[in-house]
Write a structure and sequence with these properties.
GO terms for molecular function: kinase activity. By secondary structure, this protein is α+β, with helices and mostly antiparallel strands. The chain is built from ten helices and 14 strands. β8 and β9 form a beta hairpin. α1 runs parallel beside α5.
């Protein structure tokens, strides 16, 4: 049981673990945490479970009420996003214990993905790193507006439709390969987004697009680098507009993402060889981005469906989140 805050030593640092019971081996985590908290001189760790009704915000708020100094997130991208949303504005660090099929923030931070003991050791002995936090306001068809955080990407169009077609049971069995079927189904949808957008308060532009993705960082599963210039701590959003009309346009997109982004962009020489944007794939970059759609469209945040939007307003809170990384990794 969690010990009341008033009964704990006021001088000891205390961590909380917010965990998704479906995606983690709780006994293994508890055993590793006991070893590391003791060795690092921390107090007894507190434990908070997520649920279908509470993906992480409520559990995090209860942890914050206990005065913890670090929250270890044990779950998938959705759990990490929910915890980060609740931690916003609090002087508390997040430590990631990657679980699930995506682990996109952990991948972009180049953290160890499949070593439980190493991840927990890094949480208790590592160092703090400040990264950006994406913020978004989503306007619904009934004019309701809700605000959320995101750490990796927000997507409209094919990106969100793909998630809507993804079979959760299949994803649990075969991981990212489940998205292949989902992509095939989404591509059958011939509808295009009709939208107006503005970047950093500039001129409003009207376009048709297949997909719009707003990113805080750029790498996806399978080492796919969708946004080659994105950095998790540069204080800016990276946005890609996909506008394919023909098979040749899709070939252009695949070439840019797989070859130029995935291979050339990873070296200084390769970056100098990159071509200009093609008509089917445009990149823009800024601090604030607004978008209005001609009709309600599906939207996703960090790989989770978030219903439908008729408009969005998104911006970056520079260095708005503290995460724990292994000691010496920032040198």
């Amino acid at each position: 049981m969690n010990e009341p805050a008033a009964e704990r030593s006021t001088t000891s640092r205390v961590a909380a673990v917010v965990y998704n019971p479906i995606k983690v081996d709780l006994a293994a985590i508890q055993a590793a945490v006991r070893v590391e908290e003791s060795a690092a001189g921390w107090g007894e760790t507190l434990w908070f479970e997520t649920s279908e009704d509470d993906p992480g915000q409520g559990a995090t708020e209860r942890a914050l009420a206990e005065g913890v100094t670090m929250i270890v997130v044990a779950g998938g991208d959705g759990t990490v996003r929910a915890v980060a949303e609740a931690v916003r504005g609090h002087d508390v660090a997040l430590a990631l214990l990657p679980s699930g099929t995506g682990n996109l923030l952990a991948r972009n931070l180049k953290l160890t993905l499949d070593d439980l003991e190493h991840s927990i050791h890094s949480a208790f002995t590592g160092e703090d790193r400040r990264i950006d936090l994406g913020m978004i306001e989503i306007r619904r068809a009934d004019s309701q507006v809700d605000q959320h955080s995101f750490l990796v990407m927000a997507g409209l169009g094919l990106d969100a439709k793909m998630l809507a077609h993804t079979d959760d049971e299949l994803k649990a069995k075969i991981g990212w390969l489940a998205y292949v079927k989902a992509i095939a189904l989404a591509l059958r949808d011939k509808n295009r987004l009709r939208l107006r957008y503005a970047l950093d308060g500039g001129a409003v532009r009207s376009i048709r697009a297949h997909t719009v993705i707003v990113g805080n960082c750029g790498s996806l599963q399978g080492n796919v680098l969708l946004l080659p210039d994105a950095a998790v701590d540069d204080g800016r959003l990276d946005i890609v507009l996909m506008r394919p009309e023909t098979f040749f346009h899709w070939l252009q997109i695949v070439t840019k993402i797989v070859w130029e982004n995935g291979v050339l962009s990873r070296t200084r020489l390769g970056r100098s060889m990159r071509t200009k944007d093609v008509n089917a794939l445009n990149y823009i970059k800024g601090e604030r981005f607004t978008l209005k759609l001609s009709r309600a469209e599906k939207i996703e945040l960090d790989g989770d469906e978030f219903g439908e939007a008729v408009a969005i307003r998104t911006w970056i809170e520079a260095k708005g989140l503290t995460v724990r990384v292994p000691g010496g990794s920032q040198d």
